[in-house]
Each structure stands twice: as structure tokens, then as C-alpha cells.
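Second opinion, please. Pick holes in both lines of this record:
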Amino acid sequence: MSRLFTDATLTQPFDGSMLLKQLSNLFKFRIGVVMALTSVVTLVVTPGQAVPAWQVLVLAITVLLAASSAGAFNQYYETDIDARMRRTVDRPFVTGALPHKRWWLLVMAAMLLLGVGTAAWLLNGVAALYIFLGAFFYAVVYTVWLKRRTSMNIVIGGAAGSFAVLAGAAVVDPHLGPVPVILATVLFLWTPPHFWSLAIARHKDYEAVGVPMLPVKVGNATAARAVLSNTLLLVGMSVLPFFFGLGWLYLAGALMGGGYFIYRSLLLVRDASAKNGMRAFFASLVQLVVLLVFAVLDAQLVG
């Protein structure tokens, strides 16, 4: 592992844009934004009284804070693994761009406390609980307890994304109805094929560091069939909200995005190569984005 700070680093002039880039990397800002948007989308499509815009903003910020704290903890805890994987060797704790010091844990805890506390104060206690559980499942259940121990790591750890969905719904109505519960299940089912596709593409990296991702334990071909099976289940579940109040526009998005993910999963089964693994990984992102966009369009234009 590289030194956290070198003499050259100390003599370099301050670069604000580079610092922001490193902090964005550390806090996994893009994942946090996805979680925040997912919670907002669920808020929008959940039946109930209209929520003022300021509460929507509070929801997005508090989810982002909690998700970012969990993402940073993941990097703090996994620096030894990150230093030996191609995908993660440029993370700031590995390169030394940011110091791997214990005071970061205080920063992460403060962010989580601020996010959860603000949600409890300005939204409601149920939403705050779900926001906390999302961060807890990613930082502790997945990162600490499961990732290095079992190939079921991402299956159970996938609940982290589901809690963002439940948090958004709880702002509208703490007593969850069928639509948010189904959408939370969709996020739960989405996570395994999403990460298994990436693990197929990065099989050698995970194998080298001893992380028992499914492709490492059972091989790429068997993992590819698991991706397809889970994708079929995911797409089937994603259609169900249509029967509980969402409209034709939502259904079109679920079928289009889901159909593309199934297509890429089928190609992955035919050839479980790194290239097809990465294509299936990006297809999972397309599926999720299309589903969320069409859910909002349906709620605003049809609902």
C-alpha cells in the first residue's frame, strides 16, 4: 500500500477541485445521489397527502448524508482490499490523497447522526429509522459482517437500498402500502444481479483478495445463470405496482428497462465473459434509471 502522505504531496499547492473529487470518491457521492433520488421517487409515487417541497429536499439531503457516511466507512474499512484491486486502487485512502486516520470515523458518525436526527426532527421517526437502517446495513451488515465471509453477502446486504425506498414512502405515510413495499422488494432483487454482473467482470480481482463473491465461489457460468434468474424475478416484481395503482406509463418503463436487462443477462449466460459481465452491469443501471424516470412521469402526467 502506498504511503498516505509523501513529501511531494505536502509540497504540492492546494487544489480545491482535486480535493472535491477525492471527497466525492470517498463518500461514494454517485451512489448516495442514486439512493436519494430513489427515496424521492418513492415519495412521489406513494399515494397520500401532498408533501411540501422543503420536506422533499430534507429527505434527499438526509438520505444522501447517511448513504455517504456508510460509503466512506466502507472505504475506511476496506483499504487493505482496495489497494489490491484494479477497480479501487485510485481510492483516496489507498493513494494517500486523504489520510487514513481514525478521526474520519468521527466525521462519518457525525454525518449519520446529522442525517438521521434531522429526518426525525423535520420528517418523522419512521423515515429516520429507515434512513439509519440503510446506512447500517451497508456499513455494518454488508461491509463488516458479510462481504468477506459468504457469497450471500450482496443478497442480504442488498437490503440497504430497500430502506431508501421505505424512507421516501414513510414521509408520505408511515403505514406502508403495497406500492412502496413492492418497490423496496424491487431494489432488494435488483442489487444481486447488478453486483454479480460486476463480479463476473472483475472475477480475478475478487479472487485475488479472497472476497467470496458468487462468481468466485461457483464460477462465471453458474453466476451468469443466477444473474438471469434474479433478473427475471426482478422484472416480474417491477411490473406488480401497475396492479396497485401505477399507470401504463410506469408499466412501459418497467417492461422496456427490464427487457433490456433480461436481454443482456441472456447474452451473459451464452458467454460469461468479462465484457458481457460489464455490459450486464450497465444494463442493470439502465433498468433502474428507466424504472425511476417512468415512475415519476406516470405519477406526474397520468396519476
Remarks:
- DSSP finds 16 helices and no strands in the chain.
- The first helix runs from residue 7 to 11.
- Confidence is low (pLDDT under 50) at residues 1-11.
- The radius of gyration is 20 Å.
